[in-house]
UniProtKB/TrEMBL annotation:
InterPro entries: AsmA-related. It comes from Vibrio maritimus. GO terms for cellular component: plasma membrane. It comes from the Bacteria. This is A/G-specific adenine glycosylase. GO terms for biological process: regulation of protein targeting to membrane. The lineage of its organism: Bacteria, Pseudomonadati, Pseudomonadota, Gammaproteobacteria, Vibrionales.
Length: 122
């Protein structure tokens, strides 16, 4: 785990927190007020490994999908909220990438869903 910490006026903040393990990658940014003992962080977690072969179930559906979690409030009772819109967008993006890979699509415009404008008949 590493992060660049900035301390000022009772607040510690970071824009580059990272942590890595065999199964997860974590990135975060935010601040904590150590005088008021409150936090405001956004943490993004990505599953990059698999528990298969380690006695666990397959987690392929979550592989490479980033799960953003907002952490706010007092240290004694923090609030955790899933930033759900970002999860859906990330999951859809990864599914498109997997599908284009399986289909052997190499054209970047096709991968991004680009289409030619429809012809107009007057």
């Amino acid at each position: 785990m590493k992060a660049t910490l900035n301390l000022a006026n009772g607040v510690v903040s970071t824009k580059d927190m990272t942590a890595e393990s065999p199964l997860l990658r974590i990135q975060g940014e935010g601040s904590a007020n150590y005088v008021n003992e409150t936090a405001d962080f956004l943490v993004r977690t990505s599953v990059v490994g698999t528990l298969e072969g380690q006695g666990g179930q397959s987690i392929d559906e979550l592989r490479d999908v980033t799960i953003p979690i907002k952490i706010t409030g007092p240290w004694a009772q923090p609030q955790f909220a899933l930033v759900f819109d970002d999860v859906l967008k990330e999951k859809a993006k990864k599914e498109v990438e997997r599908a284009t890979e399986r289909l052997g699509i190499k054209d970047e415009k096709t991968k991004k869903g680009g289409r030619r404008p429809a012809k107009r008949f007057v």
